[in-house]
């Protein structure tokens, strides 16, 4: 329940449209670095929350649940997230939204670089007793980071084209639920600690907001250089 609370609170802030991107991005960055510092220093509070949630999910382990969560984690893998975003890029590009397509590509490439740099800097070992094989370091979760970027892209760049507000809200809700399920799958399978998936959502939200600031500040210059269409995302 604690895991769901933190993820839901992060998502409410991420998905809420606002005119204070600068301060929101700063808040995300500070929250992320605070969590990162607590992880690096083996803070007892974070360790206690991680172990408590892992023990709770451990009671749910069964062959059926493992197959379900293994399928979910495969669909939310970094490779699949890249495929999803590339498809969205192509669809937008072919429909004349070249600026949005290039912007997504920038977020995808730069975001994965940042996530990788954090991993090799923190060098947090994965939880013991992994149910399925997982290599590399634990913090942050590449699954949750990539899935969050995919969902943000869909909500802000794709769903606005749907005329029905009720449909947009329904799909947004389902996307949030999907992110929560992907996060739970990573903890259930012992691929990550709960704090890893929370940190990933914060990092993705921070980078999205930072990229929005860059987009609105340098859009005209880049558009003139690349001769893009004049469509601007609100």
Automatic annotation (TrEMBL):
<feature type="transmembrane region" description="Helical">
    <location>
        <begin position="68"/>
        <end position="94"/>
    </location>
</feature>
<feature type="transmembrane region" description="Helical">
    <location>
        <begin position="142"/>
        <end position="159"/>
    </location>
</feature>
<keyword id="KW-0472">Membrane</keyword>
<protein>
    <submittedName>
        <fullName>Phosphatidylglycerophosphatase B</fullName>
    </submittedName>
</protein>
<feature type="domain" description="Phosphatidic acid phosphatase type 2/haloperoxidase">
    <location>
        <begin position="101"/>
        <end position="212"/>
    </location>
</feature>
<keyword id="KW-0812">Transmembrane</keyword>
<feature type="transmembrane region" description="Helical">
    <location>
        <begin position="26"/>
        <end position="48"/>
    </location>
</feature>
<dbReference type="Pfam" id="PF01569">
    <property type="entry name" value="PAP2"/>
</dbReference>
<keyword id="KW-1133">Transmembrane helix</keyword>
<feature type="transmembrane region" description="Helical">
    <location>
        <begin position="197"/>
        <end position="216"/>
    </location>
</feature>
<dbReference type="InterPro" id="IPR036938">
    <property type="entry name" value="PAP2/HPO_sf"/>
</dbReference>
<feature type="transmembrane region" description="Helical">
    <location>
        <begin position="171"/>
        <end position="191"/>
    </location>
</feature>
<dbReference type="InterPro" id="IPR000326">
    <property type="entry name" value="PAP2/HPO"/>
</dbReference>
<feature type="transmembrane region" description="Helical">
    <location>
        <begin position="101"/>
        <end position="122"/>
    </location>
</feature>
């Amino acid at each position: 329940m604690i895991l769901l609370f933190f993820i839901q609170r992060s998502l409410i802030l991420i998905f809420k449209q606002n005119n204070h991107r600068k301060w929101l991005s700063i808040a995300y960055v500070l929250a992320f670095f605070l969590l990162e510092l607590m992880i690096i220093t083996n803070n007892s509070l974070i360790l206690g929350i991680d172990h408590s949630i892992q023990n709770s999910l451990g009671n749910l382990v069964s062959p059926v649940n493992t197959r379900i969560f293994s399928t979910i984690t495969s669909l939310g893998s970094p490779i699949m997230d890249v495929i999803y975003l590339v498809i969205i890029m192509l669809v937008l590009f072919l429909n004349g939204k070249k600026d949005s397509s290039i912007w997504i590509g920038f977020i995808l490439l730069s975001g994965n670089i940042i996530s990788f740099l954090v991993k090799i800097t923190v060098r947090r070992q994965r939880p013991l007793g992994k149910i399925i094989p997982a290599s590399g370091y634990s913090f942050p979760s590449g699954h949750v980071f990539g899935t969050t970027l995919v969902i943000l892209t869909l909500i802000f760049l794709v769903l606005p084209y749907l005329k029905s507000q009720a449909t947009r809200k329904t799909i947004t809700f389902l996307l949030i639920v999907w992110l929560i399920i992907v996060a739970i799958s990573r903890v259930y399978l012992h691929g990550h600690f709960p704090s890893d998936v929370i940190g990933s959502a914060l990092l993705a939200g921070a980078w999205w907001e930072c990229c929005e600031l860059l987009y609105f500040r340098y859009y005209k210059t880049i558009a003139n250089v690349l001769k893009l269409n004049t469509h601007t995302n609100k």
